[in-house]
Amino acid sequence: MANRLAQVAGHITNTHGRGLLAGEVAIITGTFCGIGKSTALLFAKEGAKVVASDIDQKKLDQVVSEIKATGGDAIGVPGDVGADDFPKKIVEATVKQYGKINHIVNNAGFTFDKMLHTTPDDAFDIILKIHVRAPFRLIRQAAPHFRIKGESNENRSIINVSSTSGLHGNVGQANYAAAKSAVIGLTKTIAKEWGPYGVRANTVAFGLIQTRLTAPKEEGAVIEIDGKKVALGIPGAPRGASAPDKDAYPHIPLRKAGTPDEAASAVLFLASPLASYVSGHTLEVTGGAGI
C-alpha cells in the first residue's frame, strides 16, 4: 500500500510538472464543446500533453489556445473521426510531437434520433460508424504504442464514452443504444487483450449531462451529415443544469443534470493512477439514475 501511494505521489509531483497526469500524452476526440472540451481542459490542468481533435478547425483552435493560455501543452488535429485516414493522421501527429501516447479518450459523437420503425439504414449506419468503428480503428492504429513488451511504469489507458442508452436502451435511439452497447463490449475485449501489457481499458456511461445533445430541441442546434441537417437535443427538455425546482428531474436522485465538468472529472479518474487497478469497468455517471 505504501509503495502504491508513493507511486501516485510521484505522478502528482514528478519533474514534468504537477498533476495526476503530469508528463503523460492524451488523445481526446470531439473537443470543441461539452464533455470533450471540459476533458481536454481538465487533462491539461492535470499536467497532460493534450492532442485535441474535432471536425471544426476554428473551434478546435480556440480550445488549443485556451489550454495554452493557462500554461498547458496541446496541439490540435482536425478531422472527421470516421474518415479512413483519420487514425493514421492523429497517431502520427501525436508521436511526432510528443513521442508517445498514454491515453485515448474516444468521446466524439452525436445523436440521430428516430423511432425504430422510421430509422433508415443511413441513420443507423452513421451512428455505428462514428461510435464503434471509429474508436476501434483509432485504437487499432495506436496499438504499437500500447502493446509494449517488457515492464513499464507508464500509466496507459483507453477510455471509451458510452451512455445509459447503451445499458438500458432508450426510446427513439435504437441506433445510438446499439452503438453505445457495442462500445462496452469493445472496451472489455481491449482490457483482456491489452491487460498483459499494463494497459487499462474502461468505459464511462453518462446519464443526463448538459450538452448540445441534451439541450431543448427547440433551441435549434443542428449538425450536417453528408449534406443533411440533423437536429440535436431533446424535445421539451428542461433548461439549465439545475432546474428552478427539484421536480424537473424526478428520475434522478440528485435532482439535477450533470455538467460537462462533472463528466470530465469521471474521465480523469479513469485515466489517472488513482484507477490503477480498474480495468474492463463501465463507470455510470448518472446522478443516481437507473439504480
Automatic annotation (TrEMBL):
Asked if NADP is a keyword of the record, the answer is yes
**Which superkingdom heads the taxonomic lineage of this protein's source?**
Eukaryota
Keyword Phosphoprotein in the entry? The reply is no
BP terms from Gene Ontology: fatty acid biosynthetic process
Sorted UniProt keywords: NADP, Oxidoreductase
Q: Mind telling me which InterPro entries this protein's record contains?
A: NAD(P)-bd_dom_sf (IPR036291), Sc_DH/Rdtase_CS (IPR020904), SDR_fam (IPR002347)
> Gene3D superfamilies from the entry?
NAD(P)-binding Rossmann-like Domain
This entry's Gene Ontology molecular function terms read:
oxidoreductase activity, acting on the CH-OH group of donors, NAD or NADP as acceptor; quinone binding
Q: What family is reported?
A: Belongs to the short-chain dehydrogenases/reductases (SDR) family.
Listed name of the protein: Uncharacterized protein
Native organism: Amanita muscaria (strain Koide BX008)
- Recall the taxonomic lineage recorded for the source organism: Eukaryota, Fungi, Dikarya, Basidiomycota, Agaricomycotina
